[in-house]
Amino acid sequence: MILVKIKDTDFYLALLIAIIVVLLTVATYVHWIDTNFFVGPFYFNHWLTIIGTSYIAIGTPTFVLLRRFYPQKMRILLRFHMFGNLLFFTLITVHVAGQTSRSLADYPSLGLGLAMFVALTLEVISGFAERFPFIPQISQKTNKFIHASLIMVFYLVIGFHVLHVLGFI
Questions:
Q1: pTM score of the predicted model
Q2: pLDDT tens profile 96-145
Q3: Rounded to an integer, what distance in angstroms lies between the CA atom of residue 95 and that of residue 29?
Q4: Packing angle between helix 44-69 and helix 140-165, nearest 10 degrees?
Q5: Which helix (H) or strand (E) holds 152?
């Protein structure tokens, strides 16, 4: 039983963004799009992930706070949270595709960055499942718990990743 209304434009827009993520990821991975050029001190694809991660790291708690103070604006705030995070997840995904498509001689250490990407991908999937519940066997309460827990994993891993990149650990 599918619980998403066919006329739900948010679903179709989120699905379109997901399709764009896949297309940009493939295009970057097979080098149709080149993101490995310097912009200032970092590669362009690093700027993409810095911008995307910063938005998600700041936008998520902002969403949580605003929905508590302005519950009457929940629909607008939810759309800001959902589409903003999906768009910036796209930037992070392009970064990961650029990193993993590098030659073996120049292949990066994936470690914490890969862990963060997996946690963020699971976060996006659980958010999608929470907003558009396709599988009725997964309760909303369970999905909410998973979604909220994964953001904590995101913050922990990004903190360690930044400390590692800066040479502190």
A1: 0.83
A2: 888 887 776 766 676 777 888 888 899 998 888 888 877 777 788 888 88
A3: 10
A4: 140
A5: helix 140-165
Q: Is residue 42 within a helix (H) or strand (E), and if so which, with residue range?
A: strand 42-43
Q: What is the spatial distance between Cα 131 and Cα 12, in angstroms, rounded to a whole number? A: 12
Tokens of 148: 């909220």
Contact assessment for residue 45 and residue 90, using Cβ atoms and an 8 Å cutoff = no
Contact 147, 123 (CB under 8 A): yes
Kindly state the DSSP code that residue 38 receives in the 8-state scheme.
Answer: E
Q: Which helix (H) or strand (E) holds 19?
A: helix 9-29
User: Hey, what amino acid is at 81?
Assistant: H
Cα 88 off chain centre by: 6
Which pLDDT tens digit goes with each residue over 45-68? 889 999 999 999 999 999 999 999
